[in-house]
Amino acid sequence: MKNLILILILFVIVACSKQILNSNSSVYNGQLDGKWNWRRSTGGFAGQTITQETLRYTMGIRFAADSVYMLRNDSIKDRDQYTISRGKSIISPDSVNIIQYNAGHINQVIVSVTADTLVLADNVNDGYTSVYVRDK
């Protein structure tokens, strides 16, 4: 009986530690919808900064209700589905919004999102933090 209670308590703790957000959430509320043009990424093992000038091509990301499109030179390079959840990350001891991709892409922390700027950080060691500007 004690084992059953312990398992139930553990289940409740795990279930409460990750709250999935949907489009009705005040945190999400469609803020990501639309096309975002990539400006730069900083990080990696060497702590380098890369831009479209150093790569010699443009990149972007377009969010829809439950799909995300990765763009290269304005063409769709990849498509995936995603959810946004609250959880622990490697960049903050606090609970943060994490974009979880379904097809093996690296999950990303939403560092900040405003009307015109989106900052995403790879939720892995030696990952990159990328800055995007909303397409007008």
Descriptive account of the structure:
- The protein is mainly beta and 136 residues long.
- The protein has one domain (20-134): Beta Barrel (Lipocalin), CATH 2.40.128.280.
- 15% of the residues lie in helices and 49% in strands.
- It contains 2 helices and 10 strands, in the order H-E-E-E-H-E-E-E-E-E-E-E.
- Strands 2-4-5-6-7-8-9-10 form an 8-stranded antiparallel barrel.
- The longest helix has 16 residues, at 2-17.
- It is globular and about 35 Å long.
- This is Lipocalin-like domain-containing protein.
- CATH topology group: Lipocalin
Q: Give the overall silhouette.
A: globular
State the low-pLDDT regions, or none: 2-27
Strand content: over 45%
CATH level-1 class:
Mainly Beta
**Rg, alpha carbons:** 17 Å
| SSE run | HEEEHEEEEEEE
- Overall structural class, as computed from helix and strand content, comes to mainly beta
Largest sheet: 8 strands, antiparallel, barrel
The tally of structural domains comes to 1
Strand order of the largest sheet: 2-4-5-6-7-8-9-10
Instruction: State the separation between the terminal residues, measured CA to CA.
Output: 60 Å
Give me the count of strands.
10
Helix content: 10-25%
Mean pLDDT across residues: 82
Protein name: Lipocalin-like domain-containing protein
